[in-house]
Amino acid sequence: MRFSTVSSLLMVGLRLVSSLPTTSSGTLSNLESPGSGPYPAYWFTEPSLSNHTIYSPISVPPGVSLPVLVWAEGGCENNGTKFAPFLSNIASYGFLVLASGPPNGSGSTTAQFMADAVEWITHRAGTAGRYASVDATLIAAAGQSCGGLETYRMRSNDRISILGIFNSGFLGNETFIASVGGQATEPPTTIKEVHKPVFYFLGGPTDIAYANGEADYHNLTGVPKWIGNYLVGHSGTYRDENGGAFGVAAVDWLSWAFRRNETAASFFTKGGAQEDGWEEVESKNLENLFAFIPSKKET
């Protein structure tokens, strides 16, 4: 993107931010990665959800609804801006992202942070004000590395339709660790308790979670599932501009699942992932995906 274009987006963002409610902590620094989507995005905080960072389009056009992503950080780090370029890019395509951890926070998160975010937005979605356009009938949970383990714990939350596991998987016995991120780990057999669609985004054989994620994918049964590897290792491309290749994949995943966007669907069903450089791509039962997700018209 040309510098002049970025500058224009930032100026637009500043004008819009000046009219936002005083609960926002949005500043110019929050707009440096507005994303590549049609709705320039930023992050802010809310006092009533103080353990999180919220990513949203700066302005939502009339008639556009915002599905929700609750996100858990890599390392279960209590830092909601750890993957800011990646999460801002998702928001710029018309999604509200509730990321575990305050901006640049310290310490660790637990899966309860994700559950708290779901509860919080469910009570605010569709009400007058900032969250009037949010659609809390469409919620996805996803996380990277340790955050993926937290994501699995959302498997029984009825408000969540679909899971995204990024560079993660249940820890096998040969690498067993009693606890991570302040919570006890779960054995690989827990995959039998997962009854939601799961999409796996891994980093290839050099990804420390590669074997775990691959095993989970193959042991998951009875639900739509997809897996792909982008060969960059465990750290992915989250801090690249707009989240890099993982950012593109995440937007396509949510746009297909929640907006039924056919262009996004081709990433998973017509070889789009392979064209973008993803390898070891497999899927099963994707034709049944929408049996698990509330029906909504694309907006």
Describe it for me?
By secondary structure, this protein is an alpha/beta fold. The chain has a single domain, classed as Rossmann fold (3-Layer(aba) Sandwich). Helix content is 27%, strand content 19%. The protein is built from eight helices and eleven strands. Strands 1-2-4-3-5-6-9-10-11 form a nine-stranded mixed β-sheet, sandwiched between helices. Strands 7-8 form a two-stranded antiparallel ribbon. Helix 2 (84-91) packs parallel to helix 6 and helix 6 packs across helix 7. The longest helix has 16 residues, at 244-259.
Please give a quick description of this structure.
Residues 1-19 form the signal peptide. Keywords: Signal. This protein has 299 residues and is an alpha/beta fold.
Beta-strand segment tally: 11
Number of domains: 1
CATH class: Alpha Beta
C-alpha Rg, in Å? 18 Å
Fraction of residues in helix: 25-40%
The CATH architecture: 3-Layer(aba) Sandwich
SSE run: HEEEHEHEHEEEEHEHHHE
Structural class computed from helices and strand pairing: alpha/beta
Order of strands side by side in the largest beta sheet? 1-2-4-3-5-6-9-10-11
Instruction: Estimate what percentage of residues fall within beta strands.
Output: 15-25%
Low-confidence stretches: 1-29
Largest sheet: 9 strands, mixed
Helix segment tally: 8
State the end-to-end distance: 25 Å
CATH superfamily: Alpha/Beta hydrolase fold, catalytic domain
Question: Average pLDDT, to the nearest integer?
Answer: 88
Name the overall outline. globular
What is the CATH topology assignment? Rossmann fold
Protein name: Alpha/Beta hydrolase protein
Organism: Aspergillus caelatus
InterPro entries: AB_hydrolase_fold
Keywords: Signal
